[in-house]
From TrEMBL:
Gene3D superfamilies assigned to the protein according to its UniProt record, in alphabetical order: 3.40.50.2300, Homeodomain-like
Residues modified to 4-aspartylphosphate: D55
Keywords attached to this entry: DNA-binding, Phosphoprotein, Transcription, Transcription regulation
Protein purpose: May play the central regulatory role in sporulation. It may be an element of the effector pathway responsible for the activation of sporulation genes in response to nutritional stress. Spo0A may act in concert with spo0H (a sigma factor) to control the expression of some genes that are critical to the sporulation process.
SMART domains named among the record's database cross-references: HTH_ARAC (SM00342), REC (SM00448)
The keyword Transcription regulation appears for this protein: yes
Positions of transmembrane segments: none
UniProt protein name: Stage 0 sporulation protein A homolog
GO MF term list: DNA-binding transcription factor activity; sequence-specific DNA binding
PANTHER family xrefs: ARAC-FAMILY TRANSCRIPTIONAL REGULATOR, HTH-TYPE TRANSCRIPTIONAL REGULATOR EXSA
Residue stretches making up the Response regulatory domain: 3-120
Start and end residues of each HTH araC/xylS-type domain: 143-241
Top-rank taxon: Bacteria
Length: 243
């Protein structure tokens, strides 16, 4: 499910947006509402916002300031603006800022629906994120090692533990694993842990702390750090986008 933010200093207009559409039809959570730039910035800092629709002419500042801030700090967020006037200069400036679209007030339900469908189409995750990733081709003599790793992701996995369980020498493991798999043993274990975490985030309601322990990390903060390094987002952001 995706997150949508409406920004308008007219409280009546902003609140009316909560019920204008059935949000689940667009794979959207109920929208977040902000009545100004500071409140919008606070929401951005708390949750991932995938689409923002903002009024342009707001009391005390131009909505273009907010659009510029979003494009600087959250460039993946799709933005659109609301306006009472079909002004050419507004459209020109919006294009320069990379705005995805605009709506005239009063908001027409069909036009809003069309805009959101276009946004969701743009935001759709790559196919490999919505379906189970095809298994890596495993060389035959690595199968037992890989099987051991996948069955023990919740436990400490070391070169010594693998060799002890599979009755192979450490020199053999060190010599062959990187050559056969195209990455070091440590990197492969990390890849398996993160892939398992992604699966659990997509398919279960387990907390991040529980998932952290199920994939072999003792500390949620360290797990989050590694997860973000590998995926570009935090576990919660990943769940919001792909769950």
């Amino acid at each position: 499910m995706y997150n949508l933010l409406f920004v308008d200093d007219d409280q009546w207009i902003a609140e009316s947006m909560r019920t204008i559409l059935n949000w689940e039809d667009f794979s959207l959570n109920p929208p977040y509402i902000a009545y100004g730039m500071e409140q919008a910035q606070e929401i951005f800092q708390k949750v991932p916002i995938h689409i923002m629709i903002s009024d342009i002419e707001m009391l005390g500042y131009s909505g273009f300031e907010l659009l510029a801030w979003v494009h600087e700090h959250y460039p993946d967020t799709l933005t659109a603006f609301l306006t009472c006037h079909a002004r050419f200069d507004f459209a020109q400036k919006a294009i320069r800022l990379g705005v995805f679209g605009y709506l005239l007030k009063p908001v027409n339900e069909q036009e809003l629906a069309d805009l959101l469908r276009s946004c969701i189409q743009r935001l759709k995750p790559p196919k490999e994120e919505t379906e189970e990733t095809p298994a890596r081709q495993i060389p035959k003599r690595m199968e037992k090692i890989v099987d051991y790793i996948n069955k023990n992701l919740a436990n400490p996995i070391t070169r010594e533990s693998i060799c002890r369980e599979l009755y192979i020498s450490e020199s053999y493991l060190s010599r062959t694993f990187t050559k056969e798999m195209g990455m070091t043993l440590v990197d492969y274990i990390t890849e398996c842990r993160i892939n398992k975490a992604k699966e659990l985030l997509r398919t279960t309601d387990l907390t991040v702390t529980n998932i952290c322990t199920q994939v072999g990390y003792n500390y949620a903060a360290y797990f989050t750090k590694i997860f973000k390094e590998k995926t570009g987002m935090t576990p919660n952001q990943y769940r919001d986008q792909y769950g």
